[in-house]
Amino acid sequence: xxxxxxPGPFRVSWQSxxxxxxxxxxxxxxxxxxxxxxxxxxxxxxxxxEQSKSRIAIxxxxxxxxxxxxxxxxxxxxxxxxxxxxxxxxxxxxPVPKDLYWRPKPDYPSVAAMHRISTPAGKTRTLTYYxxxxxxxxxxxxxxxxxxxxxxxxxxxxxxxxxxxxLLPPIQKCALPAIDLYNQDITRxxxxxxxxxxxxxxxxxxxxxxxxxxxxxxxxxxxxQKEKWIKQGVKSK
Length: 237
What we know:
Blueprint: H1 8-20, E1 28-30, H2 37-44, H3 50-53, E2 56-58, H4 63-70, H5 86-89, E3 115-119, E4 124-131, E5 136-143, E6 147-154, E7 165-173, E8 180-185, E9 190-197, E10 206-214, E11 230-231
Parallel strand pairs: 1-2
Antiparallel strand pairs: 3-10, 3-11, 4-9, 5-8, 5-10, 6-7, 6-9
């Protein structure tokens, strides 16, 4: 498989595959690298487990010859030193037509109306909502940097965090220009904890925008909505 650069959801799906199903991947081969890659690899490889490190092959100036040592020429396209005609194996990407760009639906809230949740690098923020069975929620969110998002439930507000029940296990949400919508049917009365973790940044805080509506369009506010790390959204007139 030829992989140049993983953007957006495609990158996240491959990260999940590499994290949870790494045995499916025999080797990652990096080709056509800049001259400084060996210095960078020497610095970073010390933090990678030996089992994972052995599966990463960084090729040099003669990467086509190195590829042929790892794979048969009959399995590679001509562009990579193989025998498969490029037109049969590779397609040059074309720009996405602008008429296919994402556009918010008329009933979506604006980004300005969402509450801004600032989270330092490596830290977690949690919004807690008291909800009653039978409610149908619409969670609108927007993030310009990667975040990990999860939803937990507890019958009592005083329940220790380690005893929360996971309703939505932690998932990585990549940075996208679109507003994301997640629907949640409330089947049990209790406390619902929306947890956001900034585990992608090393140094700087990141902002996650969120607003929760009932099916009727009325906003549902968190019990800790007035925390200092939350900047309230602009109310629509």
